[in-house]
């Protein structure tokens, strides 16, 4: 077998998680080959970043590139309740006066290409387009990948395989590791608008979360550069997708029923078709096995409510890369060594998940801050993505004092459907007439 057929680490997927893991590994002197099946730029949802991405960007040498980009700067998040009353903005800088408290609203096709180019600059051998057909195993140990090439296939041996294949989740599917969230059975329909309402000043790039008047769901309102706004509605799967007609029809009905959305969009023109995704909240029952690791959406996806998706992709890529580099140095690529970051990561995801579930269960930021003003900074810490430090746990006990007496505890993620349960795989419906 030639040297070209052997690497230290093979990474499947060039999205934010795969690009992060590959770049960090290359920084640590590891020979990495990354396989991305699509030609970039390519469409992807998930445009809003949260401030804690700053620290991973800094490590990846991405900060200057982000600062020089045209992406809209984001300083805050704001909530609108079912009656149309707006909360005070949660300004990240007021909570943490550091440049890390300013983040961005990105166009993912551009952002993902920047991240992959950054991995190349760090010395990652990027093969694109290159489709990985399967992960190769000897017994229970991953030993490489089979890749489609020039009408045939080639095998590349690797000491560790990183599955960053997104929601196709190659290894999660192979081992039936996917567990669906027992609470967050949601879906979303969205499109893009030009010329719609934008706030002024430092609120211009704010993410606005708008509860639907019937409290069945919520809208995201995400300003991007080039006068584009991403606007989507989220709700229970059955509510949005069963017996209500086309995605366009449902979107229009929900828009007409929400005065805050109709006000904001009254000056705008739709500039894209209608997109939809269903059944998107899941997690793997483990992060690693002998010779393999899951990161990003290949491990799991939570919910779009607080825009945590890219942060969790970056953080899982960083944590996994450090564990892999240490494992290679120690000559131990066992499940225990490669997965040692999993407990820390899952604990952080659980914190964000609880905040998401509390919102769906009626949690009011305004009421909480009015009752416990000294804890506003802790709630803001959660909103900026400071998920991996125990100090934020101070909010949970006071939050519970606002519960109704008959409120039941939120089921834990691990109390969801078993890994091998029969469940529809995550689906993304692209518009028939993209207009974009």
TrEMBL record:
GO molecular function terms attached to this record: FAD binding
Domain of life where this protein originates: Bacteria
Lineage: Bacteria, Pseudomonadati, Planctomycetota, Planctomycetia, Gemmatales
Protein name: FAD-binding protein
FAD-binding domain span: 7-325
Record-linked Gene3D superfamilies: FAD/NAD(P)-binding domain
Cross-referenced Pfam families: FAD_binding_3
């Amino acid at each position: 077998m030639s040297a070209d057929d052997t690497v230290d680490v093979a990474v499947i997927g060039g999205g934010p998680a795969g690009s992060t893991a590959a770049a960090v590994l290359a920084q640590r002197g590891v020979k990495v080959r990354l396989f991305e099946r699509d030609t970039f730029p390519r469409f992807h949802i998930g445009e809003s970043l949260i401030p804690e991405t700053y620290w991973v960007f800094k490590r990846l040498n991405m900060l200057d590139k982000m600062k020089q980009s045209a992406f809209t700067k984001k300083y805050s998040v704001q909530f609108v309740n079912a009656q149309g009353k707006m909360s005070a903005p949660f300004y990240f800088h007021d909570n943490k006066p550091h440049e890390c408290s300013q983040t961005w609203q990105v166009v993912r096709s551009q952002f993902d290409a920047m991240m992959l180019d950054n991995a190349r600059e760090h010395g990652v051998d990027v093969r694109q387009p290159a489709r990985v057909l399967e992960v190769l195993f000897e017994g229970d140990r991953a030993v490489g990948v089979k890749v489609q090439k020039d009408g045939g296939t080639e095998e590349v041996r690797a000491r560790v395989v990183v599955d960053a294949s997104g929601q196709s989740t190659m290894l999660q599917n192979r081992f039936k590791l996917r567990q669906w969230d027992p609470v967050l059975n949601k879906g979303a329909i969205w499109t893009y608008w030009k010329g719609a309402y934008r706030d002024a000043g430092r609120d211009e790039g704010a993410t606005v979360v708008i509860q639907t008047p019937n409290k069945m769901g919520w809208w995201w309102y995400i300003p991007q550069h080039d006068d584009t706004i991403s606007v989507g509605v989220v709700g229970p799967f059955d509510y949005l997708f069963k017996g209500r007609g086309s995605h366009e029809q449902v979107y229009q009905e929900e828009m007409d029923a929400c005065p805050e959305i109709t006000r904001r969009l009254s000056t705008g023109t739709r500039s894209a078709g209608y997109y939809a995704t269903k059944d998107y909240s899941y997690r793997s029952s483990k992060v690693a096995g002998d010779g393999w690791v899951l990161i990003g959406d290949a491990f799991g996806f939570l919910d779009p409510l607080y825009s945590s998706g890219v942060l969790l992709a970056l953080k899982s890529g960083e944590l996994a890369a450090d564990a892999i580099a240490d494992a290679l140095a120690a000559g131990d690529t066992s499940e225990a060594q490669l997965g040692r970051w999993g407990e820390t990561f899952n604990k952080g995801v659980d914190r964000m998940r609880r905040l998401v579930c509390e919102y769906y269960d009626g949690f009011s930021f305004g009421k909480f801050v009015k009752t416990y003003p000294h804890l506003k900074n802790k709630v803001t810490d959660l909103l900026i993505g400071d998920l991996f430090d125990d100090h934020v746990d101070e909010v949970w006990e006071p939050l519970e004092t606002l519960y109704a007496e008959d409120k039941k505890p939120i089921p834990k993620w691990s109390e969801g459907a078993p890994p091998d349960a029969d469940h529809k795989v995550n689906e993304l419906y692209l518009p028939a007439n993209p207009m974009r």
